[in-house]
């Protein structure tokens, strides 16, 4: 019976990351459609890579960016934004994964393959657009490229940063804590868009059991916390 139970034990549908900041907390769900970015982000979070790093670039009505390891011990006024591991992540840009408010995207330099920085990311704040504003965006900034019906609906209701679509990989979205992005986005910044007062982050990958219980709660089911569950969990890796 035990072997049968183990064989049918569930694996969470997604990976989840808790992000704590000086301005509030968030819960992030990573997309399975972007496995290279997902797995790299999971690896860095598990290693504690992001502990104590800053949101070093903040632009109101656009995004908040972090993940530069040089920000951990950076002096005031020190330029930031160039640090990170010595590898890049291949682009996983997909039409249906767009820059709506609360999504996470991978920062990058101007490389033609649109490969992503291995560690630097941004959380989208953006803004809500009118239909006329999207028409103007298509004509001038997108040089005639038309937005899809999905994009127009999202950017007129939830908001976001449509001009980034197709150029950067979006690899997850916040399940809660979007208001934290709003709080960070309005802080006072210098000429390089760095906050005048440091805003630091801490991240934690939810364990297999935490993720399973979160998914149960989202389905309206109670979490499993009983003795048998704890015994069975001994036979599994803490993560997945």
TrEMBL record:
Broad enzyme group: isomerase
Record's keyword terms, sorted: Isomerase, Rotamase
InterPro entries: Cyclophilin-like_dom_sf, Cyclophilin-type_PPIase_CS, Cyclophilin-type_PPIase_dom, Cyclophilin_A-like
GO biological process, one term: protein folding
Span of the signal peptide: none
Segments forming a coiled coil: none
EC numbers on record: 5.2.1.8
GO molecular function ontology, one term from the record: peptidyl-prolyl cis-trans isomerase activity
Keyword Isomerase attributed: yes
Pfam family, any one: Pro_isomerase
Domain PPIase cyclophilin-type: 13-202
Gene3D superfamilies reported in the protein's UniProt record: Cyclophilin-like (2.40.100.10)
Family, as annotated: Belongs to the cyclophilin-type PPIase family.
PANTHER family registered for this protein in UniProt: PEPTIDYL-PROLYL CIS-TRANS ISOMERASE-RELATED, PEPTIDYLPROLYL ISOMERASE DOMAIN AND WD REPEAT-CONTAINING PROTEIN 1
Name of the protein in question: peptidylprolyl isomerase
Protein's organism: Sphingobacterium gobiense
